[in-house]
Amino acid sequence: MRLLMLGGTEFVGRAVVDAALARGWEVTVFHRGRHEAPAGVASLLGDRTAEGGLDALAASDAEWDVVVDTWSGAPRVVREAARLLAGRAGRYVYVSSGSVYRYPVAAGSVESFPLVEGDADADSVAYAEDKRGGELAAVAEFGAERTVLARAGLILGPYENIGRLPWWLNRVARGGPVLAPGPRELGLQYIDARDLAEWVLDAAFAGLHGPYNIISPIAHTTMEEFLEACVAVAGAADVELRWTDPSVVAEHG
Fold first, then answer.
1. pTM exceeds 0.85
2. Boundaries of every domain in the chain
3. Architecture of 2-156+189-214 per CATH?
4. Which of 6, 59, 73, 74 has its CA 20 to 30 A from that of 131?
5. CA dist list (Å): 165 to 86, 90, 169
6. pLDDT tens, per residue, the chain with 253 residues
7. Is the Cα torsion angle 85, 91, 97, 101 positive or negative in sign?
């Protein structure tokens, strides 16, 4: 399989690249050059937000079986890339988000739950609307039968550039008393970037299309299990989790 990863040097994009290379796929990454591309890939440089930013892709005569895109900004950026690649790639996998569903989402909801509004040609508005617009942009150019919409939940994992899991790991590594927002039994629902990446590649290989919710089961783990795991991995010898009622945390902003 020939994969074009739009991005590919950080977080979810890097996880997809690593998983594809492990499968023996031929991988091209299109990125801005801010981080070194993984070994074993072909690299094309460009900034999707800049004028002429897709020139390197346009100049290439390569074709791909699948494109994977994790873009979270202006939907028009997704549409511009998808329009350029529609005749040169078999399938477009857009890593979207559960945020595209209207708030509040009912527990256990499926992909038919009502969605926020989105515009495929819009500039950046807000995260949820941007992701929905990105979905519409991908479908507009590749068609519904050639587009996979991976609606991920909150994502954790290696190369994270957002600051969720790294914050906790760095905090417990410093040691001492650590504020632990309760309740301990609070159910958490994440998806590991590596699991997400494997699903994305499986979906592309199987020729799937349409939207899919990609997240662990409800209450897959708890706040206590999560923080205890952080302590086990990175905690200093004197780290102490101090469990605090959520109302106290909220009162202090």
1. yes
2. 2-156+189-214, 165-187+219-244
3. 3-Layer(aba) Sandwich (3.40)
4. 59
5. 36, 35, 6
6. 999 999 999 999 999 999 999 999 999 999 999 999 999 999 999 999 999 999 999 999 999 999 999 999 999 999 999 999 999 999 999 999 999 999 999 988 999 999 999 999 999 999 999 999 999 999 999 999 999 999 999 999 999 999 999 999 999 999 999 999 999 999 999 999 999 999 999 999 999 999 999 999 999 999 999 999 999 999 999 999 999 999 999 999 9
7. positive
Residue with tokens 């991988």: 27
